[in-house]
Automatic annotation (TrEMBL):
Residues 6-26 form the Flagellar basal body rod protein N-terminal domain. It is found in: Bacterial flagellum basal body. InterPro entries: Flag_bb_rod_N (IPR001444). It comes from the Bacteria. Its main location: other. GO terms for cellular component: bacterial-type flagellum basal body. This is Flagellar basal body rod protein FlgB. Keywords: Cell projection, Cilium, Flagellum. It comes from Methylobacterium currus.
Length: 113
């Protein structure tokens, strides 16, 4: 989920940079990920009758089919700000990749033991 959010945010930033010299273009940005995460159903969900019964399970699963929200800001494009945002997205993506890589190493270590 976070990786696709970062992809959309990077595309939005790239669009801002590409249109930096376009007359009247308003910079765009995505809704912060914390807000996106708050809108999703984070409770455990029972998606199959074969799952074990437990209190609190069986809540409906909410899916957001509308995609990520991209907002127009009231300012023109600042290349410095867009470059800072792009480096932040890159750093967050590298962190995600590092976490997945560590998880994979731990899993492989447990399987080999």
């Amino acid at each position: 989920m976070h990786a696709s959010y970062l992809s959309v945010r990077q595309s939005t930033i790239a669009g801002n940079v590409a249109n930096a010299n376009t007359q009247g273009y308003q910079a765009r940005d995505t809704v912060p990920f914390a807000q996106v995460l708050a809108r999703t159903g984070s409770d455990m969900a029972m998606t199959s009758r074969a799952h074990l019964q437990a209190p609190g399970l069986g809540v409906p699963v909410r899916t957001d089919k509308t995609g990520w929200d991209v907002l127009e800001t009231s300012s023109s494009v600042s290349l410095e700000q867009e470059m800072l945002k792009a480096s932040e997205v890159s750093r967050q993506h590298n962190l995600d990749v590092g976490v997945v890589r560590s998880f994979h190493r731990m899993l492989m270590s447990a399987v080999r033991s």
